[in-house]
Amino acid sequence: MQQSPLLKVHNVGINFGGLKAVSDFNMEIHQGELIGLIGPNGAGKTTCFNLLTGVYIPTEGDILLEGIRLNGLAPYQVTQRGISRTFQNIRLFNELSVLDNVKVAYHSLAKHSILSSIFRLPTHFSGEKEMEEKSIEFLKIFQLDTFLYEKAKNLPYGMQRRLEIARALAAGPKLLLLDEPAAGMNPQETQELMELIAFVRERFNLTILLIEHDMKLVMGICERIYVLDHGQLIAKGSPNEIRNHPKVIEAYLGEEAAESHVEG
Ligand SMILES: Nc1ncnc2c1ncn2[C@@H]1O[C@H](COP(=O)(O)OP(=O)(O)OP(=O)(O)O)[C@@H](O)[C@H]1O
User: Fold this and answer.
1) Which residues belong to any copy of the ABC transporter domain (predicted)?
2) CATH class of the domain comprising 90-171
């Protein structure tokens, strides 16, 4: 018997004024899967992430995590329920150190109370110390532990991307959403990132949903792929099925034609 899905998206849609940015979107993700979400520019991918994380409230449909409805929850509540994300444009706390960027994520889940923090009670110190140790452990996995006290903004681009993933993971998600993690990376950095994503998935027994323009990355690591175009789901299936799907080919050819029109 098949296990019930970790995430179930049922007929979800959202309108911005007259524009249907996403409509009738359905998706099921099971524990441990690594799923790709692709589509031409403006297809609605980031809007889906914003719907899943409480940034937008769906105009229609339901989003369920472990069978519990998430619609209407604020982003921090969604994080507490188990969904963390990274952003297309890196959003780190630039002026904070690498270590503090990760500690902030732990703070959102910290067990010790605000009162004990204010009055610096012993429970606070054990909480703070534990948090610091865990953060450093995490940063080691991402090979960022030699930069613990460096300001985030001073890290090279590829490392900033890794720090964003580390911070999202520190919140202890059941489902990790990665929005174009390889954007702006060179082929070598992209290859390393692919290995890192595969590694953290194993290590933390994670479930991952990934938006990515880099087809090699998507096809190389995702088991199943969902394809959006103009806010509609046009295909879903294995990388092979998606590669040869007529609607997908048409959508991407349309995008190439539009790009060459702009360039030409
Ligand atoms: N807050 C908003 N208000 C109005 N329109 C929006 C808003 N957010 C997104 N849209 C529109 O919704 C559509 C889908 O945008 P979205 O950013 O989700 O696409 P995308 O697939 O992530 O694109 P890209 O690959 O270029 O990042 C676009 O037409 C966009 O202009």
Assistant:
1) 7-255
2) alpha beta
